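Listing S7. Sequence submitted for prediction.
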Amino acid sequence: MKNDYQFLWVNVSPAFKVFHRNLFDYLGQDFEIGLWEYHQTLDESSTMSNAEELLHEFISNNNQPIHLIGHGMSGSLALRYARSHPEQVASLSLLSVPVQPAIDWQSYYYYHLRSLPYERACILKLMASSLFPDACSGCIQHVANRLARDLVEAPSDHSLWKFDLLPQGGVKMPLLLAAAEDDVIAKGVLFTDWLSHLKLEDEIWHHQTGGHFFHHWHTADIGKQIQEFWQQALSPQKSLVAALS
């Protein structure tokens, strides 16, 4: 049976779904957005390849090229898919994805686990404070618990013994990049290095604060940017210029 999605939010981290809800609902006021989720089980090998194959199985049944959006490692999966199947993707919106798309919060976690003389629970609380700099102190343990869930539920090519890298570069379809300047994952050179890979129709957007989950705190700001980007991508004149370039 064919699907008829025009916009699709990719999520491979069920534990983080609550942090995406504000933006998902905001965008849903003007656009009908589908949600594709992947839930890693304890009996599966932890790899992004499995998730990418299932995502392709879903999108290949769509009636039209789809506008993808994803955050963090979910954005990295959307990027991998857009590169492998550009004919299936109309545009790509990436939140908090650095130029080296393999870098995510889990890679930082394993780095700190190897290098710091602290127990797992302590490192998770440190990561929670870094990823959520605007969160109140009473919320940090709640965030740390969700990070612990994500280590089990989300697919990853990283582990305590292995860290994989992915090719850097852009994509053929229009691309929107957004991140917060205080994001420990995608800030600074990790994010601005994207500039050398952008096309004329691509866009890049910063927010000063908000950390790795900036879209949870500054929903309207990033929501307006995504809406404008989608409207431009839907413009017939925009599509003609892209096709002739």
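Caption to Listing S7: primary sequence and predicted structure tokens for the chain studied. The radius of gyration is 17 Å. Residues 228 and 234 are 10 Å apart (CA to CA).
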